[in-house]
Specification:
Oligomer: single chain
Helix content: 25-40%
CATH class of one domain: Alpha Beta
Distance between the termini: 46 Å
Number of strands: 10
Largest sheet: 6 strands, mixed
CATH architecture of one domain: 3-Layer(aba) Sandwich
Length: about 250
């Protein structure tokens, strides 16, 4: 479980997060949504340890991330898997080498144990046949699946995904959503996703948090997001529909 309370962050006097609190539970896909510049990515970075908040607390199963010593923070980081926007693969490494990288850096596994773990993860995302390919030789959707395989190779308790459907066609986006949801359910992972994609919200949103100008204006789930009385949320949710109507 991830619990965060009163997360505040400013840059050069500009307030980005105004005191955000929430709880993400194991086995749930929790989505953080909102327009550009609302603080979604900054909140994610505060949660995973890339940016230190000015105030507030982040707890992983009761362990206070920012107020613990470095050894505890390292332990928590080892339990995280992160899928970065765009995949963030190493262009000079094969698919196998990309997935294997965290094992090389963070574990004392034997070579055969690393091989076995990489094979399991590539099979889980349906890429065992692409193991020897370079990133330049695979599609955008396959790169995202490689990123997912790398994110789960350490058998994480917590999975963070930053815009996993960015740059993908609708059908591939659906497949990526389904894969993330399946992995979350299968391994009982606490999953947090940053997204603009309302299809993702409606299909896999066990919990949805809506940020607006650094505030948390609403939280609920995929069953209630369409019936909110929050004006700003409705504008975000139905924006694409209105744009289509304007083009007619």
């Amino acid at each position: 479980m991830i619990q965060f309370s009163d997360i505040q962050k400013s840059f050069n006097g500009r307030v980005v997060l105004k005191g955000i609190s929430g709880t993400f539970k194991p086995g749930d896909t929790s989505l953080i949504i909102g327009g550009s510049g609302t603080g979604k990515s900054v909140l994610l970075k505060c949660l995973i340890g890339l940016i230190k908040p000015d105030n507030g607390k982040v707890q992983y199963d009761g362990r206070d991330f920012w107020n613990s010593d470095e050894d505890i923070r390292k332990d928590i980081r080892r339990e995280m898997g992160v899928l970065f926007q765009g995949g963030a693969l190493f262009d000079s490494k094969t698919v196998t080498e990309n997935v294997r990288f965290p094992l090389e850096m963070l574990t004392q596994m034997s070579e055969s144990e690393k091989d076995d773990r990489v094979n399991v993860c590539l099979t889980r995302v349906g890429l065992e046949q692409a193991a020897k390919r370079m990133p330049s030789e695979i599609s955008g959707g396959m790169k995202k699946r490689v990123g997912i395989a790398r994110a789960i190779v350490m058998n994480p308790k917590y999975l963070f995904c930053d815009e996993p459907n960015s740059g993908l066609d609708p059908l591939t986006s659906i497949k990526i959503d389904e894969l993330i949801k399946e992995i979350t359910d299968e391994y009982n992972i606490t999953t947090c996703i940053i997204t603009h994609d309302m299809n993702s919200v409606l299909e896999i949103g066990d919990k949805v948090v809506f940020l607006y100008k650094g505030d948390k204006l609403w939280e609920g789930d995929s069953n209630t997001v369409l019936s909110s009385e929050i004006t700003e949320l409705n504008e975000f949710v139905f924006a694409s529909k209105r744009l289509r109507e304007m083009k007619r």
